[in-house]
Amino acid sequence: MEVWTKYCCGKMMYVTVFSSVILLVIGLAIGLSVNNFKGSDALDSAPLIDGHNDLPFNIYEILNNNLDEFDFTKNLTDDKLWGKKACKSCFTDLPRLRKGKIGAQFWVAYVPCSSQYMDAVQLTMRQIDVIKRLVVKYSNDMQFVTEAKGIEEAWKNKKIGSMIGVEGGHSIDSSLAVLRLYYELGARYMTLTHSCNTPWADASTVNNGSVHNLTEFGEAVVHEMNRLGMLVDLSHVSHNVMRRVLSITKAPVIFSHSSVFSICKIYRNVPDDVLNMVKNNNGVVMVNFYSSFVNCNSGRNATMQDVIDHINYIRKLIGPDHVGIGADYDGVTSVPQGLEDVSKYPDLFDRLYESNVEPRWTKEDLEKLAGRNLIRVFKAVEGVRDSLAKTEHPRQDIINAKDISEDQKAINMKPGLCYTAKEWDGIKSTNKTSQ
Ligand SMILES: [Zn+2]
C-alpha cells in the first residue's frame, strides 16, 4: 500500500509537474501571441482586397499597353519611367504589392470621359485586354479571378487574385449588349459613371442637383447587372443616383473607392443617409486614400490618420461589416503621409489595432475591413444572380434617343453624331509584337 502510494504519488507528482510545465508553456505561447498580435497579422488570416487600382491606365499612358517594355517584378520606386520623380500617379509594382500583403486587387479598365460617343467601347476592350495579358505574363504572382470563391483560392495559392472593374458607364455606350459582353470577358464591377454624366445616370459633378438622376434605362442597367451577377459600383455617381440605385437594386452594392462626405465635403464621398442605406443594403464602402478626398481645407498634408478617421467614422455609423479598402493607387497624384504606395497597407492595419478608439478594433473586424466584407457582398451578388436565373432573361431595353441627344447637346456635341477618335494622332506605329 505504501509502496503503491509512494509510487502512485511520485508518478502523479511527475505527471502534475509535467502537465504544469506544458500548460505554462502553452499559456505563455498564447499570452505571447496575444500580446504580439499586430493589426497587420489580420492580413495573414484574411485576404486584403483593394477595390480600385488604376495601374492599367498608366500602362496605357506610359507604354501604349506594350507589356514588353514593362517589368512588374522590379521595384519601380526610382525607375526612370515609373519612379516617383517621373510619374506622380505611379505607386504599384509586384515587390511592393507583396510587401503590402495584398491578397486581391480590382484592376480598373478606365477610359476617359472624352471617349464618350466616340470610341469608349473599343478603348475599354483594350484596357480589359491589357489587364488579362498582365495577369498571364505574371502568372507566378497573379491569378485571374471572376468569382468570390476564386479570391480565397488565389490567396491560398499565394497569388494576387486579379479582378477587373470597368470604371464609368460611358464605357458601355448605352448598350446592355456591351455590358453583358464585358461580364463575359471577366469584368465584375462597373462604376455607373466616371466624372461625366451618361445619358442615363448623373455623375458626382452635378453636385447633388440632379440632371437626369437615374433614368428608366439607368434602372435597366442596374437590374441587368443584378441579373448578370456584376457588382454595382456607386463611386463617382451623384448623391441622388446613389439613393435611387440603393432603393431599386436587388443585390448589395459597393463603393469601390469613396470616403466620407461628413468629414470631407467632396461630392465623390458618401453622405450619412447613403451610408445608412448601404447598411440596410448589406453593401460595403471601400475607403479611398486620395489626399484631397480624406483631408479637405485643412491647409496641411493628408496623413494616414485622416484615412483612419474615415474608416472609423463608417465603422461607428454603420458597423464593421460595411467598410473596406479602395485606395485608388495609380488613379491619383497625391496620397497621405504614411500610405505612400501599395507597400503600406500593413502599417494602416497596425495603426488601427493600436489606436485607442472605442470599441477597439478586433482581429475579426480587421479581417472584415481587409476583405471579408467584400467577399460577403460578392457572394451575395452571385446569390441574387443565381436566384434571378430561374425567372429573368437578358434585358432588351434600348435607350430613348432623346436622352442621348439631350446629353450630347449638354456637352456641346451635335446630337446624333458619333465622333471619330483622335487618339491615334501623334502615336507612332510599331512593328514590335507585344504580349
Ligand atoms: Zn475613380
From TrEMBL:
Q: How does it sit in the membrane?
A: Lipid-anchor; GPI-anchor
Its main localization is membrane
What this protein catalyses is:
an L-aminoacyl-L-amino acid + H2O = 2 an L-alpha-amino acid
Entry EC number(s): 3.4.13.19
KW Zinc (keyword) present: yes
Enumerate the subcellular locations listed in this protein's record, separating them with semicolons.
Answer: Membrane
Set out the biological process GO terms recorded for this chain's protein: proteolysis
Per the UniProt record, which residue ranges are transmembrane?
Answer: 12-34
Query: Pfam families attached here?
Result: Peptidase_M19 (PF01244)
Keywords from the named record: Dipeptidase, Disulfide bond, Glycoprotein, GPI-anchor, Hydrolase, Lipoprotein, Membrane, Metal-binding, Metalloprotease, Protease, Transmembrane, Transmembrane helix, Zinc
Q: Which GO terms describe its cellular component?
A: side of membrane
An annotated Gene Ontology molecular function: metallodipeptidase activity
Cofactor(s) for this UniProt protein: Zn(2+)
Can you tell which superkingdom this protein's organism belongs to? Eukaryota
Q: Where is the signal peptide?
A: none
Q: How does it assemble?
A: Homodimer; disulfide-linked.
Q: Which family does it belong to?
A: Belongs to the metallo-dependent hydrolases superfamily. Peptidase M19 family.
Protein name stated in the entry = Dipeptidase
> Which lineage is the organism of this entry classified under, starting from the top rank?
Eukaryota, Metazoa, Ecdysozoa, Arthropoda, Hexapoda
